[in-house]
Structure of ATP-binding cassette, subfamily B:
Amino acid sequence: MFGVFRKFFAFAGDQKGKWQKGILFAVLHSICEAFQLLAIAVVLRGMVEGSMTAGTAWTALGILVFSLLGTIVTRHISHRNEISGSYRMCEEKRIGIGDRMKYMPMGYFNSHSLGNITAAVTTTMEEIEKLGPPTMVRTIHGLIRTAIMAVFLLFFNWRIGLIVVTGTLLFLGTNSLLHRKSRVLSPKRQAAQAGLVEAVLEYIQGMSVVKAFHLDKNANKTIDKTIAEVEKYNYSMEIGFIPYVALQQIILRLTSVAVVIVSILFYLNGQLELFMCLLMIVCGFFIFTELEAAGLMSSFIRLIDVSIDRVENIHKTPVMDIDGNAQQPGSYDIAFQNVSFSYGDRRIIDNVSFTIPQGTTTAIVGPSGGGKTTLCNLIARFWDVNEGTVTLGGKDVRAYKLDSLLQNISMVFQNVYLFNDTILSNIKFGKPDATMDEVVAAARKACCHDFITALPQGYDTVIGEGGATISGGEKQRISIARAMLKDAPIVILDEATANVDPENENKLQEAIAALTKNKTIVMIAHRLKTVRNADQILVVDAGRIVQRGTHDELSRKPGIYADFIGVREKAIGWKLEAAR
Ligand SMILES: Nc1ncnc2c1ncn2[C@@H]1O[C@H](COP(=O)(O)OP(=O)(O)OP(=O)(O)O)[C@@H](O)[C@H]1O
């Protein structure tokens, strides 16, 4: 239990001070409450010794008022610190995780599914946020208050004090059994909850497939299963803890009863004055109230423990050198030297070397799954190579601070992702301080200004998550506008015009040509037009460069490229035939 307290304070980071203040005022609250005992003691002494006067009553009343005001003020301060400490702590962690994710290798997102990460920053963090304050403060407060009272009783009557110490130790023993049980069940419950979030996300994301294939009856079977799991573990925890919590309560109640009985016996034997006996009896009823409340909450301690581990696992994932050097490349030449790369155990890029001189256009072509996108991702350090080096301006890309590397690169992906925000914000993502004129100019060049202004809200139209409310071609044009606005010296186009209709594709080709002038361009393309004018064409098959050269050189040689041209020309021919 004490290990969890330490872990919690370490997790609190900058908010640790607030938590310490919250607990300090909770202890002061206990001390103020203890003044009620003093008021009772004053009245009891007056009654027992027959010295009760109006002055005695006023003194007791004064102490009670002081106690009441003290408890209100200290409780308020303690509560405020707990609550704000808790929300700030979780806010900082969530933002921290968001920031770190940008620097995590993409491999992390392969092995840690979306649902898992979502569950950690939502439900798991919420558990820390909601259960953390009452559990931590109640438990620490309960223990400190019981310790103070036990010292007080040991001081006045060591034998009665010893009864209280024994009761407290038995309570802690039962508590540790409860924690042992919780250590087994809490991780299972958390895993089940993460599984549920994952299943729901997958169900919603795959809704179009569910509808298209009439899978509605079977599609939510996984969700039903995960709901049943969550229910099973929640139930097991509640039911499993009942005997321990009950035993804790019984131990504390029996200890209180023992304090009362022993006090009376000591009085009857003449070992305790009547006044002291009555005071001990009152103490017997007071002493464990906070510890009892703490006992009811202590089953949550292990849950908080597991939740913290889960969040910290994500938070402490090694990131790509954010502390690297923020430096500008001397040139924009890109070079691969004997590069090999695997996704897990599967080798995708196999000992590849090539150079892309600054200001030239390199087209990467080849069969699907050959490794074209992977090569581009290695330039932008979405992944790091396993062997060899990728250099920019002669320096290993790993030597750059990630931000300073990425500011030189604009990427337009095959699968465009737009944020659930306005079109304006999505385009400005490429240059957050861009003016409206700059945004419109980029949108015009990317052939999306007209369709944007035709929307009722224009540039202020909010597009759904992932760009759900606009078409694939529109999304792609917005993402091209975004890249144009960024105006980086290196442009990577991964099938940039794949979803654009022929009429707009011509315009886009012109716009891309104008924008990419004097820049270093790497493009993955299946279309002949986009490949033909490249300075260099790399044909990638099964992770190797099997051909390289210009269009004229390669089209004369037998091989994948000549076949590619053959198929494309045939396809164009078919189109012309059909048009006639
Ligand atoms: N994140 C990933 N994790 C594991 N394997 C991956 C990942 N991304 C791609 N792959 C695998 O690596 C291989 C190369 O993929 P890549 O996307 O680089 O090929 P590509 O040539 O760009 O294909 P396409 O033309 O179809 O887009 C494929 O077999 C793919 O399944």
Summary: The radius of gyration is 35 Å. The pocket of adenosine-5'-triphosphate is lined by residues 110, 343, 348, 368-374 (CB under 6 Å).
